[in-house]
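Handout, tutorial session.
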Amino acid sequence: MPALSALPFLKPSPLRSPLRSPRGQRRHTLPASEFRCLSPEDAVSVFEIEREAFISVSGDCPLHLDEIRHFLNLCPELSLGWFEEGRLVAFIIGSLWDQERLSQAALTLHKPQGTAVHIHVLAVHRTVRQQGKGSILMWRYLQYLRCLPSARRALLMCEHFLVPFYQKCGFEALGPCQVTVGDMAFIEMQHSVRGHAFVRRNSGC
């Protein structure tokens, strides 16, 4: 499994120079912008962002706190967080799935032998929305998946109003999803992550 630090498109951009003290000595500062896999220690921050983003819209969260910890323990390499000055501002959590389409079991299971990455949730902190961060994070996440030997495609389910957003990210609609949550219905979407030899050759994978 490649380390995120080895992937050029996931490295933080040098957005500012390190601060210096009056005597000219360099002071240590947090990176202005950093992308890395999440850990179980990030679960509370993840849930706080997710809860605010989803409960006001749908009344529930894709993942509850214990489920977030579950996936960040089982497959942290399939998550990606965007941190600004050490603060989490956006994230994606995924797991592996081993069937052609998503089913109800995909909501809670991680199938290590699977070749489809089920994207459970993408959320952005309310203070930095409408800045394109969701699209940027998804692009970086898909680039990362192309470096994972087991990943062949990415799957997600979303409500109808989010279909145009994911289409702009390169996903195609597969039709109604088998999964339901309460009285909510979803569209299942797919993005191929195989057959990108040029990307692999030039990404440090």
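The second record follows below. Compare its token runs with those of the first.
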Amino acid sequence: MASVASPVIFKEFCPLYYLLNAIPTKIQKGFRSIVVYLTALDTNGDYIAVGSSIGMLYLYCRHLNQMKKYNFEGKCESITFVKLLSCFDDLVAVGTASGRVAVFQLVSSLPGRNKQLRRFDVAGIHKSSITALAWSPNGMKLFSGDDRGKIVYSALDLDHGVCNSSLVLEEPSSIVQLDYNQKVLLVSTLQRTILFYTEEKSVKQVGTQPRK
């Protein structure tokens, strides 16, 4: 008996003009006109987060059709990575070209959720460009990796507004991917992929040959 083929779903792909039109293509800084490049992207069911070359994070709410902007104080530098998380509160982590990492706890209109925008900073452990970010499902842990192979663990206490960070691992080559689940951190670098067991602080390499 022939199996019944599953139905084919057609999807249309088109530029998100409503999003792109809300982001300036140039900004004026003194007498200079600076071109704005889009440098990082992440999405979930609630938001589209876009990082830019001018240090501005553009956060589009898909339910309210509203664009909001967030930035780092001080130096205007390129955002290299953004990572959204929707748990009890909506969170977005942002990394920059100089190694700055910040977490924004977003405002929610839902009862019992966060009513005031808060920002947490990962204090000066990274000294080079952020290349990867990974959340724990509950938003209490954030892992950040940079292009010099450093991986930093940040413990967030959202109730008390505290962020404590420490260096947990250092690889000889750039971090290209991080993913965290069930006390295990998956780390991919330019040379290898490893599993880092956060409780035992032990490392297990995936495969035996280095990447070419």
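Points raised in discussion: The longest strand covers residues 162-170.
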